[in-house]
Write a structure and sequence with these properties.
Chain lengths: 189, 313
C-alpha cells in the first residue's frame, strides 16, 4: 500500500482551498450569505461553494440562533457529513444566547451539543467579520488545529448525554420514524 | 506484436491523462467564465483539481451497497471507453465500422450508471432527480438520432474516422446546409448532456439538492468529478470532430509536431463549443421537465429532421 502520509501537506492545502458549505442557514445570519457568495465579496475566489447536499460538504455554518427544533436537524446534518468536517458559528446567539439569553426556547451554548471550530462574535457579524472567520479556519486547517470532528468522536458520550438530556432517549429513532418510515420499517423485518 | 501492443497501451494511457487534465481545465474555465459573467473574480483555474483531491482524501466514506459502488465505476468506465473510440487528431485507439452510433450511445451511458447508483441509495431527492434525468435522456434521443442520420446520410458512412477524413478535403461539415441544421440540433442536445442551464432540471441545485448527486460524498464524488472531466473532453471532442472538421495536420515532417498541432487545433475548437454552452447556460433560466421534453420534441427535432431530409435528397 502507498503511504499517504507523504501527501498530507497537499491534502491539507486542498482541504483549505476547497471548503464546500452546506446550505443550511439557520436564524437571521443566512441573509449575510448572498453578499458573501455573489459579486460583492465573492467567496468563490477561495474555492468556497454553497452546496445543497450534506454528503459532500466540509464547512457547516450555524448562522444565528438555534432552537431545539433546528438543533435536531443540525445534529443530523452534521453527522451526515464525511470527515474531516468543520463547524463555524456566526454571531452571539450560538455562542452564549445573545439577545435570546433568557429565552425558554433557544439553545444558549451550541458547543455542548456539537463541537465548534470558530465562533464569530457580533449581532450580526458583517461579511468582513465572516471572511475573517473563514481566514481563521483556513489557518487552523493548515496547522492542524481544526480538529472538531476528532473531538466529536472522542467525546461522543458527553455530546450524546447532552443531546439526550434535551430531547429524551431515542430521539434519533423517533425522528427517523417520522421522516423515513418506509426505511425504518424495512430495518425491522 | 508485443511492442505494438505496448505502444497502443501507452497511447491509450497518454490520451487518458491528457483528456483528464484538459477536462479539469475545462471545468475550471466553466467556473471562471460564469464568474466573470456575474462580475465576480472566480476561483483559480485549477480549482476542480483541488476539489477532487479533497474529495478523494476524505477520511470517512459512506456506501449504500454493491450497486452504489458499481454504478460510479460503470459511469467512469463507459466514459473512458467512449473516449477511446473518438478519433483524436489522426489517432484513435479503438476503431470500428459504425462507431458513430456507438459513440453517441456510449456518451449517454454514464448518466445511466449514475442513476443506478443514485436510485440504490434510497434518497427521495436522488430518485426524483434520476427520474428527471431519464426523461431528459428520452427527450434528447429524437433530435440526436435525426442529427446522426443526417451525418451518415450525407457522408454515406457510419465511421467517425472516415467522416473526419472526408472533412479534411471537402471542408467542415457546418459549411453545408443540411449538416449546419444537424449541428444546431446537436448543439442544443449538447446543452443537456453537459447538464447546463436551460436543461439542468435533473440536477437543479436549489430545487432538489443536486438530484442524483445528493447522496454521493467523499471518494464516490471524487470519481464522479474525474468522470465529469473526461466526459466534458469527450463530448466537445466528438462535436468538433464530426461538425467542426476535426484536425489531421500533415504539414510537418515530424509526426510528433503533427500530433501536437492537431491537438492544439482541436483544443481551440473544443473551447469554442464549450464557451457557447457556457454563454447559453449563464443567460438562460431553467426549463421544467415537461417544458424541456416538449421543447426537445419540437424545435431541435424539426431542425434535425429537416437536415436529415435535405441530406437524403
Amino acid at each position: 500500500m502507498v503511504d499517504w502520509r507523504l501527501f498530507e501537506p497537499l491534502f491539507e492545502f486542498a482541504r483549505k482551498r476547497s471548503l464546500w458549505i452546506v446550505s443550511f442557514c439557520t436564524g437571521c445570519g443566512g441573509i449575510e450569505m448572498p453578499p458573501l457568495m455573489t459579486s460583492r465579496y465573492d467567496l468563490e475566489r477561495f474555492g468556497m461553494m454553497a452546496n445543497p447536499a450534506p454528503r459532500m460538504a466540509d464547512l457547516f455554518l450555524i448562522t444565528g440562533y438555534v432552537t431545539p427544533k433546528t438543533l435536531k436537524r443540525i445534529i443530523i446534518t452534521y453527522e451526515l457529513q464525511p470527515d474531516p468536517k468543520y463547524v463555524m458559528a456566526h454571531g452571539s446567539c450560538p455562542l452564549n444566547g445573545g439577545v435570546y439569553w433568557d429565552s425558554y426556547n433557544a439553545i444558549k451554548h451550541l458547543d455542548k451539543y456539537i463541537p465548534v471550530d470558530v465562533v464569530i462574535a457580533g449581532c450580526m457579524p458583517r461579511p468582513e467579520a465572516v471572511m475573517d472567520g473563514i481566514n481563521k479556519i483556513m489557518e487552523m486547517i493548515e496547522n492542524g488545529t481544526a480538529d472538531s470532528w476528532k473531538r466529536y468522536k472522542e467525546n461522543y458520550e458527553w455530546y450524546k448525554k447532552n443531546q439526550d438530556e434535551l430531547f429524551g432517549e431515542g430521539w434519533r429513532e423517533r425522528e427517523a420514524r417520522r421522516w423515513i418510515p418506509w426505511l425504518m420499517d424495512k430495518k425491522e423485518e | 506484436m508485443i511492442t505494438s501492443m505496448i505502444g497502443i497501451a501507452l497511447k491509450a494511457f497518454l490520451i487518458l491523462l491528457y483528456a483528464t487534465f484538459v477536462g479539469f481545465m475545462f471545468m475550471g474555465i466553466i467556473r471562471i467564465v460564469t464568474a466573470r459573467i456575474h462580475r465576480r473574480v472566480g476561483p483559480p483555474i485549477y480549482q476542480p483539481i483541488l476539489d477532487t483531491i479533497k474529495l478523494l482524501s476524505k477520511k470517512s466514506n459512506i456506501t449504500h451497497g454493491l450497486i452504489y459502488d458499481f454504478g460510479v465505476l460503470y459511469a467512469l468506465g463507459a466514459t473512458i471507453l467512449a473516449l477511446m473510440f473518438i478519433p483524436l487528431g489522426s489517432i484513435s485507439i479503438l476503431r470500428a465500422y459504425g462507431d458513430l452510433i456507438l459513440i453517441t450511445f456510449l456518451l449517454e451511458i454514464p448518466m445511466l450508471g449514475i442513476m443506478f447508483a443514485a436510485m440504490s441509495s434510497g434518497n427521495p431527492w436522488a430518485g426524483l432527480g434520476s427520474q428527471r434525468a431519464l426523461l431528459t435522456l428520452l427527450a434528447v434521443q429524437v433530435p440526436l438520432g435525426f442529427a446522426i442520420v443526417a451525418l451518415a446520410e450525407f457522408y454515406d458512412t457510419f465511421s467517425t474516422y472516415q467522416i473526419v477524413m472526408a472533412q479534411q478535403t471537402a471542408g467542415w461539415s457546418i459549411t453545408y446546409l443540411p449538416l449546419l441544421l444537424a449541428a444546431v440540433a446537436y448543439d442544443i442536445v449538447l446543452q443537456a448532456m453537459f447538464g447546463k442551464e436551460p436543461f439542468d432540471i435533473m440536477i437543479a441545485p436549489g430545487e432538489i439538492s443536486l438530484g442524483p448527486m445528493v447522496e454521493f460524498g467523499g471518494k464516490h464524488m471524487g470519481i464522479l468529478q474525474i468522470q465529469h472531466a473526461i466526459a466534458l473532453f469527450a463530448e466537445t471532442l466528438f462535436f468538433s470532430n464530426i461538425f467542426l472538421g476535426g484536425a489531421v495536420v500533415t504539414a510537418f515532417a515530424s509526426s510528433i509536431l503533427n500530433t501536437l498541432a492537431s491537438l492544439g487545433i482541436l483544443l481551440i475548437k473544443q473551447l469554442a463549443v464549450l464557451l457557447i454552452a457556457i454563454f447559453i447556460g449563464a443567460i438562460f433560466p431553467r426549463f421544467t421537465i415537461d417544458q424541456a421534453a416538449r421543447f426537445y420534441w419540437k424545435w431541435p427535432t424539426i431542425i434535425a429532421a429537416a437536415g436529415a431530409i435535405l441530406a437524403a435528397l
